[in-house]
Design a protein that fits this description.
Elements: E1 4-7, E2 10-13, E3 18-24, E4 33-39, E5 46-52, E6 57-59, E7 67-71, E8 76-81, E9 90-97, E10 113-114, E11 118-123
Parallel strand pairs: 2-11
Antiparallel strand pairs: 1-3, 3-8, 4-5, 4-9, 5-6, 7-8, 9-10, 9-11
């Protein structure tokens, strides 16, 4: 059973940076898709970024230019966030879809393995 563990969240001022990490209990990232999602209080979970097994990344329009997703090895992903804004405040989740050959979307329903999340809070 794959477990995903996120870390790196915290409280920062607007304009600051954070690096979120996602570590899998087994080598999860060789096939399928990995994604980062976020959910703010009272809002639906939304996709932030995704990466496929070849290392190709995609980003939601509202984070382009500020978020960078990278895969360090078969167990670890990073989400580097620059120029944080108050509207980025949310719980951030790492998720996996282990099926090979699928398109890596930003839809939460595609992913069947989830971490517990790491909180990011941005203040003015």
């Amino acid at each position: 059973q794959v477990q995903l563990v996120e870390s790196g969240g915290g409280s920062v001022q607007a304009g600051g940076s954070l690096r979120l990490s996602c570590v899998a209990s087994v080598a999860t990232f060789r096939t399928g898709c990995m994604g980062w999602f976020r959910q703010a209080p009272g809002k639906e979970r939304e996709g932030v970024a995704a990466i496929d097994s070849d290392g190709s990344t995609s980003y939601a329009d509202y984070v382009k230019g500020r978020f960078t997703l990278s895969r360090v090895n078969a167990n670890t992903l990073y989400l580097q966030i620059h120029n944080l804004k108050p509207e980025d405040t949310a719980m951030y989740y790492c998720a996996a879809d282990s099926r090979a050959g699928v398109y890596c979307s930003h839809e939460p329903t595609q992913y069947n393995k989830w971490g517990r999340g790491t909180q990011v809070t941005v203040s003015l």
